[in-house]
Amino acid sequence: MYFRADDKGNPDFTRPLSQLEHVEAYWDSADDDPTSLADLYLNFHDFDRIEFLLFKDRLSAAILIARSAGKAISRLQDRFEQERQDGSHRVPGWEAESDLVLEESLGVVQDAQGIAVGAAILSAVAALELLLKELSASTGKRRGLDQSLRDLLAQQNASSDETKRIIEMVSRVRRRRNAFAHSLTGSYWDAPTAEDMFTPESMEDTLFTVAKIAVALEALIDATRQAATGPGAVQQP
Q1: What is the mean pLDDT of the chain?
Q2: DSSP sequence for 153-187
């Protein structure tokens, strides 16, 4: 959460920014403060536990990779499209060959965009999986995303509705991660659906969803801890 400054320029914790001001402040500093890149996706939620703070840094790193690649790809696309329009890429006497080279270059850039999106999805889901493993008390070594989630939920006082909601969100981002991994290895057994395709929209949805999952998990852990230590808690003999 961001706050207005007091007369001395220090944050005044009694005066948080409005939602619109949060978003404006985020974009003003996005290029200069990579540690804050996940704030927008977390809806400016403040974590307290070290596991979640590390998760936020890893999610910010995934966003930094995606945006850096996106800017480079956009510059190349604009340049090649301009060359295609004005013909500046053409070598006299080799016009057809020059066009082929340009189209190949555009194809590489388009492939790079899909790979960059997939890499961001993969990194974000990996950050979530590591968070789940760090939070789970299970000592099993061979635990993937689903097993780590089940282990953690079993340790919390989660309602059936909340459990279902979290599982559905995790399943959505897991499908996208797996689709990208299969595409890299040339596996086409499970053709990705429109929702799973490697587009900027699917990447943004994955980043927001992973962030929502983390916030929901923290709320579950806090509620379980409060139930165990608060008034009316059952004391162990």
Answers
A1: 85
A2: HHTS---HHHHHHHHHHHHHHHHHHHHHHHHHTT-
